[in-house]
Amino acid sequence: MPTVPHLPESVSAPGILARLRAETRPYHDALEAGAFNESLRAGAPTAAGTAHFLERMYGFLQPYETALRQHEAAFGPAWELPRRYRAHLILADLQRLADAPKPPLCPNMPPLHTLPQLLGAMYVLEGSTLGGQVINRQLERAGIPLRSYFAGYGERTGPMWKAFCHLLAEAAAPDNADEIVASAANTFQCLDAWINQP
Q1: pLDDT tens for residues 16-61?
Q2: Rounded CA separation 166/163 (Å)
Q3: Which of 33, 60, 62, 85 is at 20 to 30 A from 93, Cα to Cα?
Q4: Cα 64 off chain centre by
Q5: Is residue 4 within 8 Å of 128, Cβ to Cβ?
Q6: At CA 180, angle to CA 22 and CA 169, rounded to 5?
């Protein structure tokens, strides 16, 4: 079951979106081979496995969101960045108190210093909200309550993804497209190494 799905075929994918879908496919597929996704494919997710996945996801999402916050002015209000921050939902899922130790942070994040680098990473993390909807339903059927993060933006998940794709297509240009694609590929690889490490 996809955790970070590619752009659905039913959605137009001109230019940068088509490149992202095609050129990051191997890294996306490698990420999908992890233990958590295997348990979902087998129809046998566990609370412990879900909690472990969420802890690792927090370790990646928190520094990513910190980088986004540092560059909010470069995006503008149309991107609705404050609505796209979701690391706090993982802490809620894990029922961690404010003074409790937080999960460890990923020490090997992809570079997130330029707008194109952030856009590439956003493609990966925003895309994960679509797969999260499917995972949320699977966890509900399994009686696992750790679902706030996977619920994404709720009923707005589809519209938020489409809005992101539209804005990304507008932001991409011949002089930054390669950097966007390289960043997305790098993000998939770093996330895979962090989440699926032994």
Answers
A1: 999 999 999 999 999 988 999 999 999 999 999 999 999 999 999 9
A2: 5
A3: 33
A4: 10
A5: yes
A6: 80
